[in-house]
Amino acid sequence: MPAGTLRRVLTLSTVNVNGLRAAAKKGFVEWLGATDSAVVALQEVRAQPGELTAAVREPDGWHTSHAPSEVKGRNGVSVYTRAEPEAVRVGYGEPEFDGSGRYLEVQLPGLVVASLYLPSGDVGTERQEQKERFMASFLPYLTELRAKAAASGREVVVMGDWNIARAEIDIKAWKTNQKNSGFLPEEREWLGRVFDEAGYVDVQRKLDPEGPGPYTWWSYRGKAFDNDAGWRIDCVLATPGLAGKCTSVVVERAETYAQRWSDHAPVTATFDWDFPA
């Protein structure tokens, strides 16, 4: 960058809002108004666009893309961008999941950004089988997405609620959760393949490989939040070229239990990247 020019940065945020209508009443709108992010990815919106107020559906200064679930009151992902997207894609081409409100991507100059809400699963139930089918079909798409983006000169960021804690440092009570969905050996192995085979980089762990945490989700039950007994399941994954430009990742944990507007905290990543105008 020539001397005397301003450094350009790209800031991205992701948060599982645990119901956008409820979050909007408890602090999401104020948070969105204060963020410096150029892109905000939301998961578990749980509302059709028409059920949201105009201030939430299309806030001033933002271009919004929504992918609600065909099942009312479930799932739903959105992406808010300061710049108008060049293209928007709902789903990743798998008929079982394309209408489920779990994946949405937008194309921006030099960048593809996706909001992901991976199924949570429940061992021994159809929900876990659904999660396994999603993972099996999603990994090849991630590989394809990276290749196509590179061919068009774009980097990729897939951020959201991955519903898998990769390692012991990503979950406080790892010893008691080894047989629970979200920390199963096969799930952790799959996420490892996203890194090793598909070639994505967990930017939090690139900057802080030791941990523990920082956690991004805490159960509403008991004293999980107060004791910081959480899981790190909300992650920002980027292609290597962009990941190498990441300068910070911050989990915006509420100061008190009463100030939470979701059971997840926003995760905000900043990149020293001279992105195209």
Automatic annotation (TrEMBL):
Endonuclease/exonuclease/phosphatase domain ranges (all copies): 14-264
CDD domains, sorted: Nape_like_AP-endo (cd10281)
Keyword tags: Hydrolase, Magnesium, Metal-binding
Requisite cofactors: Mg(2+)
Entry keyword Hydrolase: yes
NCBIfam families given in the database record: exoDNase_III, xth
Family named by the database record: Belongs to the DNA repair enzymes AP/ExoA family.
Protein name: Exodeoxyribonuclease III
Taxonomic lineage of the native organism: Bacteria, Bacillati, Actinomycetota, Actinomycetes, Pseudonocardiales
